[in-house]
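Bug #77: duplicate submission created two jobs. Keeping one. Sequence:
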Amino acid sequence: MLPSSYFVAREDFRTAADSRSWQWSALPISSRGPANEELTIDVAWSTDQRDLPTLIISSGLHGVEGFFGAALQIALLHANADLRGVRLVLIHALNPYGFAHVRRFDADNIDPNRNFLLPGEPFAGAPDGYAELDALLNPRSPQSRWDWFQLRAAYAVLRHGMPRLKQAIAAGQYEFPQGLFFGGKQPGETQQLLLAHLPDWVAGAPRVVHFDLHSGLGRRARRSCSSIRR
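Kept job's structure:
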């Protein structure tokens, strides 16, 4: 069952971790919840033994997708699986602001999924065609009676083609801070917290596999996941 809110999910996550006698910690972020509540990235681990292969399962990088990810993490905690021989690290709500406010991005309009660049890659640039679409996608004033958005959008599709428009919009960009899929101009708060704490969470592990749970793309009710192996 999906949790009804970020705060319900966080409390259920902590309670489930306690029921398994797992240790957990909460990392506060600077942004606040809808009613000025404290927001945290919560981390729970199955054992303090550090020389084991480690499996990381994280949720909520795209904020609102945390409803799906948290439900899986909580179900896993309740499953009472046999974890001998592996260290399991669960990271709940990588983007707690987006989760709590039911939106995809963080408080700075950064898409955290596009904020993680390889070393040396600049926080700059935008896909071909995005600059031309920015005014259409992000109007500077409320829509008027004579906005003709649907006609302008249809013209853009006819001119560029739907596949090219999809790529230009969803690929991520670093030039328009108020635009869609903005990747930021520097490492965001989620990345900074991971850089500070992830080395400790995996210290001593001979092998690490990281699954980050998403739910935003693909056909409805179909399973999908991505993994990073190091």
